[in-house]
TrEMBL record:
Keywords: Oxidoreductase. It is an enzyme of class 1 (oxidoreductase). Belongs to the aldo/keto reductase family. The keyword Oxidoreductase applies. The active site is at Y59. This is Aldo/keto reductase. One of its GO terms (molecular function) is oxidoreductase activity. The lineage of its organism: Eukaryota, Fungi, Dikarya, Basidiomycota, Pucciniomycotina. Its EC number is 1.1.1.21. PANTHER family: 2,5-DIKETO-D-GLUCONIC ACID REDUCTASE, ALDO_KETO REDUCTASE FAMILY PROTEIN. The record marks K90 as: Lowers pKa of active site Tyr. Substrate binds at H125. Residues 32-277 form the NADP-dependent oxidoreductase domain.
Length: 290
């Protein structure tokens, strides 16, 4: 993203980015994909200061996340006012289409409501359903948002052509596009399009699921700044203007992934990391499906 979204130094867990609708989304999120205990991990993250939790219907842990947020809040509504927790979920491609998406969103809304919560961001998880069902699903999210059932809406794993189809259909542009992003997969065409259209980019797999940590450039930079390779990767993502979503079930790593405020990558560091781009995906990255 452009400088308008670049993180200020020093970074804190209170840092946020403003969406087009005026909502303030925390700049660092906490992912719970494949979490072995999403309730406990979410609780650890919240205790350590995270205020942005990223779930999905596909993860089958929306209820665990909501239960952890409710418990942490002491029964108050944590997604309102001071100290709010930003909650994201997603509806998977196999649930796209008018009827299917209506049913899926209502189910997720009911789970959040059970715990006194509302989803701050609801995403189309992927573009795999095909153009017609994608557009039908997007219209449903717009309607649910307008009804006040969810707050902000966006997409995930959408390539430029998928985003263009939304525009060509005369529908409003997503607030967010969540895609796999790290130095080895920079997806510059999508990032540049999102910057032009005012779409905030969220970065999943920002620490490559633990792969490539022995890369010489990353090792060199971690030694230079006396931090871990994951901290280098997350800081890169923040300085690029993305909203990274690191995940872990280990309390020490959850904490370390948020300890980013006492160092900054300089221009030379960033240039070194720009050179690492090789189109290497550690996840499914379905941005080019029809």
């Amino acid at each position: 993203m452009g400088a308008e979204h670049a993180v200020a130094s020093p970074f804190t867990l209170a840092s946020s980015v403003k969406l087009r609708n005026g909502a303030q989304m925390p700049r660092l999120g906490f992912g719970v994909f494949q979490s072995t205990n999403a309730k406990a991990s979410t609780a650890h993250a919240l205790t350590m200061g995270y205020r942005h939790i990223d779930s999905a219907r596909y993860y089958h842990n929306e209820e665990e996340v909501c239960a952890a947020v409710q418990k942490f809040s002491g029964g108050n509504l944590p997604n309102e006012g001071t100290g709010k927790v930003w909650l994201t979920t997603k509806v998977m491609g196999q649930e796209h289409g008018t009827d299917q998406t209506n049913k899926a969103v209502d189910e997720s809304v009911a789970i959040a409501k059970k715990y006194g919560l509302t989803w701050d961001l609801f995403l189309l998880h992927d573009p795999t359903a095909g153009k017609q069902k994608r557009l039908e699903a997007w219209k449903v999210l717009i309607e649910k948002r307008d009804q006040g059932l969810i707050k902000s809406i966006g997409v995930s794993n959408f390539g430029v052509k998928h985003l263009e189809q939304i525009k060509e259909a005369g529908l409003e542009t997503p607030e967010v596009n969540q895609i796999e992003l790290h130095p080895f997969l920079q997806q510059r065409d999508i990032v540049e399009y999102c910057e032009k259209e005012g779409i905030v980019v969220e970065a999943y797999c920002p620490i490559l699921r633990g792969k490539r940590f022995d890369d010489p450039t990353l090792v060199e930079l971690s030694k230079k700044h006396s931090v871990t390779v994951p901290q280098i990767l997350i800081r890169w993502s923040l300085q690029k203007g993305f909203v990274p979503l690191p995940k872990s079930d280990t309390p020490g790593r959850i904490q370390a992934n948020a300890d980013l405020w006492d160092f900054e990558l300089d221009e030379g560091d960033m240039q070194q990391m720009e050179k690492l781009d090789e189109g290497y995906a550690v996840s499914w990255n379905p941005v080019n499906v029809e």
